[in-house]
Amino acid sequence: MEIRFDEHGLVPVVIQDWNTGEVLTLAYANEEALARTRETGELHLWSRSRQELWHKGATSGNVQKVRALRLDCDGDALLALVEPAGPACHTGARTCFHNGEADVFAPHEAIPYLTRTMADRAANPTEGSYTNELLSNPQLAGEKVEEEAEEVVRAVREESDERVDEEAADVLYHLLALLQGRGHTIGGAQEVLNGRRR
Q1: Could you give the residue ranges of the DSSP H alpha helices within 1-57?
Q2: Percentage of the residues of the chain whose pLDDT score is greater than 70
């Protein structure tokens, strides 16, 4: 299917984090921007305000490596799946969609947020932090994964749906800590699962 550009020769591009699925921004591209994106592997867009080609992150260093481009069913919008080198927003925020209700979180935001928090704790240890204790003690983290896995199995057999969710959350938290302590994220396991879909 061919891209259907609008009357200005532009197509909207939704930019999404390859690893987390978080939407980073919405921008526009023309044919030249898409050609440069394909040539370089880094996201190029069209600035409607400046009326010029825009290499995302060229000034800030927060470039976005493009892993995939997907065209919608009508051919008039693109999805760019990218690996960002830093914040996507010119304000320094991770995503341009940072305004709104501060205490409303979508389910898919939990693991990426927790992963970033654990990486920050690993880089900036806090005395007395349980997370830091897990990150610095792989044996403890492994024991906790085993313990919590047993508890979620027992909850499935004997307890309420709420307890199942709580115990599953405990497994995920401790598994993320175990992985972070090894310098990994859940992304590696997700790649393995994607490979098993084939």
Answers
A1: 31-40
A2: 99
* CA nearest to 113, candidates 54, 185, 26: 185
Look at the block and give the residue holding tokens 């994220």.
185
Contacts of 149 (CB under 8 A, 6+ apart): 171
Q: Is 25 helix (H, G, I), strand (E, B) or coil?
A: strand
Give the model's confidence band at 105: pLDDT under 50 very low, under 70 low, under 90 confident, else very high.
confident
DSSP 127-140: TT-HHHHHHH-HHH
Helices (H), the chain: 31-40, 110-123, 130-136, 138-158, 161-181, 186-195
- Tell which residue, 116, 175, 166, has the closest CA to residue 141: 175
Least confident of 9-13, 37-41, 190-194: 190-194
Instruction: State pLDDT tens for residues 173-188.
Output: 999 999 999 999 998 8
